[in-house]
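Worked example 3. Consider a protein that binds nicotinamide-adenine-dinucleotide.
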Amino acid sequence: ANEQRAALVTGSGSGIGRAIVDRLHGDGWSVLGVDLKAPEGDLAETLPGPSLGADLTTREGNRAAVDAALEHFGRLDLVVANAGFQHVSPVADFDEDRWDALLAILLTSPFLLAKYAWEALRAAPDGGRFVAIASAHALAASPFKAGYVSAKHGVLGLVKTLALEGAPDGITATAVCPGYVRTPLVEKQISAQAQAHGISEDRVLEEIILTPHALKRLIEPSEVADVVAFLQTPAGGAFNGSPVTMDLGWTAR
Ligand code: NAD
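Given these inputs, the predicted complex is written out as structure tokens:
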């Protein structure tokens, strides 16, 4: 059997997911990255492990992700449900298909991954681990983000439930809840707001994005990856069923 612990990381093509893949590889894990499109050519060459293209808003996509991890590694010790996107709109105009897609990627995909991986996580020799990259928006709302905030609050409920169900089988579940992280997801919001308000991107960052942070900076993707790596140590198991809030003081208010 494969001696290395094995992880499945979704949304591995960008931002936080990519940083988690790199960090886990550095720590000696086998990692399957899953994103909408598998990287091709030179990009694929530079990746430290296998990857899969799958649409995780579908049941088949989530099933394929778990199957591929088990095929590659013969075991699965950790699932990191990270893939996601944002949609910003007043509730009265909120596109209903976007709502469905947000719930599918941010809430239903983590549920399906846990369900399909459950047996493998139970068999993990050091205890299976489930980590959702949730958000400060799992704990507090912002206007115009009805779909995202609702799904993130929901995934915290899923994590709590998995923690209670998994404990007798040595499976732990944790929700990492960052404030704003320097990734394309946030960079897109900065440029959209700059356009909408007719102001510079620097001003958007200072006057809009960083407003909720007590500490006025963005979090780096590697900082989130560090937390995920810590959760894989024996001490990390104590965070079973809890949000690990890393929001620079946002929810301290
Ligand atoms: P990102 O846009 O850099 O990366 C997200 C990845 O998910 C992309 O590669 C995208 O292709 C993939 N993805 C989206 N839809 C998919 C689908 N249907 N199937 C498969 N893959 C899909 O974003 P990020 O900032 O790295 O976000 C990662 C996670 O962290 C998300 O769940 C996000 O909500 C959460 N988060 C981000 C921030 C932040 O400020 N950036 C803060 C808190 C939480």
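Take a moment to read the result before moving on. The mean pLDDT is 96. Residues 11, 13-17, 35-36, 55-57, 82-85, 105, 133, 135, 178, 180-181, 183-186 surround nicotinamide-adenine-dinucleotide (CB under 6 Å).
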